[in-house]
């Protein structure tokens, strides 16, 4: 059973705090380690000048208050807010006097944090709104349950659950904060996909969406991370792989279907993007 503690200095309701019960050497996913996790319903305590030793993600189910990192601006916290604590930084946070909030938190550490920072999955000093992330409270409850049992495999599952949640949240938050990135991209992707077997008239696609070619290139790169022509080759090579594995068409026939007149050039591109030759793909993967 999950331990429940009564602590009226934090909340008038029973709170749940679970510390790690597994030695790090027993974990398979050592680059990600979930630390203490907790649920503080009806939290009334405001903390000042607090420094944490680990990263933490905090999710506010209901209520309101403020969050401030170092000497920055105090930011409003409300239902659906997410924010992070970074080790070594000073924080002032909590509900306003006389108020409360319902809080979940997960502490975490590990070498993978550097990758999360680089890819934007985590960030300090900012309050995010994540109302669009479905089942977020259930995810925190799942991590609580996994960490409570003390089994190494469950601690590893909790780490994977945390990473998946961060990924889901990052997409929702990015969409909310950068609406200009949404624009025509879904339809542009459909247009590019539909042209895999045809000769692509990129100028026509740009004109259809009332944008210039330079804007089309910028949108595709911003969305996919690849230059436009690189993205098109990747679409075609993905389709080529599908044909190699699911038809008896010869390599030169597949090249022709995808509008590569030179099968040797096609084979070089396939190996560049897929890491193996077309024949190796057919003979060893199919």
Index terms:
elongated; single chain; 42% helix; alpha+beta; 286 residues; four-stranded antiparallel sheet
Structural overview:
- The mean pLDDT is 90.
- The strands form 2 sheets. The protein has a 6-stranded antiparallel sheet, with helices on one face.
- The protein has 10 helices and 10 strands.
- With 286 residues, it is of the alpha+beta class.
- The protein has helices spanning 113-119, 136-149, 152-177, 185-194, 202-208, 213-224, 228-246, 251-257, 263-274, 278-284, and strands at residues 16-18, 33-43, 47-51, 55-63, 65-69, 75-77, 81-85, 90-94, 101-109, 128-129.
The class by helix and strand makeup works out as alpha+beta
Query: What gross morphology would you assign?
Result: elongated
Mean pLDDT: 90
Q: Tally the helices: what do you get?
A: 10
Number of strands: 10
The main sheet orders its strands as 1-2-9-4-7-10
Strand content: 15-25%
Question: Helices and strands, in N-to-C order?
Answer: EEEEEEEEEHEHHHHHHHHH
């Amino acid at each position: 059973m999950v331990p429940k503690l009564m602590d009226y200095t934090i909340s008038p309701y029973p709170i749940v705090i679970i510390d790690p019960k597994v030695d790090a050497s027993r974990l398979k996913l050592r680059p990600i380690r979930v630390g203490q996790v907790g649920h503080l319903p009806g939290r009334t305590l405001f903390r000042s000048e607090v420094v944490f030793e680990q990263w933490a993600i905090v999710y506010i189910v209901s209520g309101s208050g403020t969050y401030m990192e170092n000497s920055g601006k105090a930011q409003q916290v409300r239902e659906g807010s997410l924010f992070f604590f970074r080790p070594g930084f000073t924080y002032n946070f909590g509900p306003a006097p006389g108020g409360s909030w319902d809080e979940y938190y997960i502490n975490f550490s590990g070498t993978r944090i550097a990758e999360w920072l680089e890819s934007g999955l985590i960030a300090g000093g900012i309050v995010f709104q994540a109302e669009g992330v479905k089942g977020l409270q259930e995810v925190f409850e799942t991590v609580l349950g996994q960490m409570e049992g003390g089994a190494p495999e469950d601690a590893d599952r909790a780490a994977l659950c945390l990473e998946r949640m961060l990924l889901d949240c990052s997409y929702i938050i990015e969409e909310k904060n950068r609406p200009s990135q949404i624009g025509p991209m879904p339809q542009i992707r459909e247009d590019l996909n539909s042209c895999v077997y045809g000769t692509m008239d990129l100028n026509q696609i740009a004109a259809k969406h009332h944008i210039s070619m330079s804007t089309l290139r910028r949108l595709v790169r911003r969305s996919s991370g690849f230059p436009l022509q690189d993205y098109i080759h990747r679409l075609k090579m993905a389709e080529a792989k599908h044909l190699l594995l699911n038809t008896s068409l010869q390599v030169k026939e597949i090249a022709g279907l995808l509008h590569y007149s030179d099968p040797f050039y096609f084979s070089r591109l396939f190996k560049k993007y897929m890491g193996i030759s077309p024949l190796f793909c057919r003979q060893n993967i199919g």
